[in-house]
Design brief:
About 25% of the residues lie in helices and about 20% in strands. The strands form five sheets. It has a six-stranded antiparallel beta sheet, with no helix packed on it. α1 packs antiparallel against α6. It is elongated, with a radius of gyration of 32 Å.
Amino acid sequence: MDSVFTTNPCPISKTRISACSFCYHLHFLMLPLVFAFCSITTSSQASPCRTSCGDIPINYPFGIDDGCGNPYYRHMLVCSDYGKLELRTPSGRYPVRSISYSDPHILLADPFMWNCQDGDNFRPTRPFSLDTSTHFSLSTQNDYLFFNCSKENVIIEPRPIFCERFPERCDSSCDSSSYLCRHLPECASALRGSSCCAYYPKATESLRLMLKYCASYTSVYWRNVGNVPPYDQIPEYGIRVDFDIPVTTACLQCQDMTKGGGTCGFHTETQNFLCLCPKGNATSYCKDHEISGHSRAGVIAGTVTGVSAAGAIGIGAGVWYFRKVRATAPVTCGVQNNVNRLF
């Protein structure tokens, strides 16, 4: 009686079985890497620059992803995973309350400054400072109030009278008759036994010297409310920082909707201008015919690029190892064609 089991004309060795088994498992191991790599690349191309952090809009010239916005403001704004926006300065990182692009300024909060809840209890503070090499500047709409200053080291006088008598020393005096000292915003009676005077430091060093001889300080800015003068401004606590918006022909062309409506950015290595577009980058505008000639890797956020690179390295390592095994244990019992070929 003939056996129902026919003899295999091509016996398979253990080495071949292990090679085929490895190929089978490698195929499924690499699929997640391929899909992850493709999904990251697709998402980064669809939206290269985030347009908000929390409820604060992020527009040109700013960017919270490297390569977005203007390089003058590179790494200045930081958006946390919780949607909290902060401004980096030499004196620390400060929460951003709002950004105005029509009247270019950023409103900051300084948790180290005096507030109404402190009353006569003055906490240790630190002087706020800006990098003078940036396009940021302290607004002249800020007023600074200093508390419990030493009369031996600080000129504390009512400014109108003092300036009439000593005009050459007027700018060095701390005004004890300041309107804000007599009408503290939101808490007019917060100070009971402490002194207050107003002084506008013209440099960071001046502010440091003042805090050396004063218990604490706070910043009050005048917010425009759109009413008829003199009731068009109200005082609020915070630091107003003005900024410039660099306007270039290249950026205007890039943002032009008739030319593709791109996003103004820059190359992260050369800092040269780039127009960031859904299908790639251009040195002019999105409908430029040479858009395909510019790599996108240099202007995507570092985290996205890093993950994509890691995926590419993982896939490359898998390809190399597979080829090495295939070279030592070739498949001879199956037909390898373009349909079932992995690589």
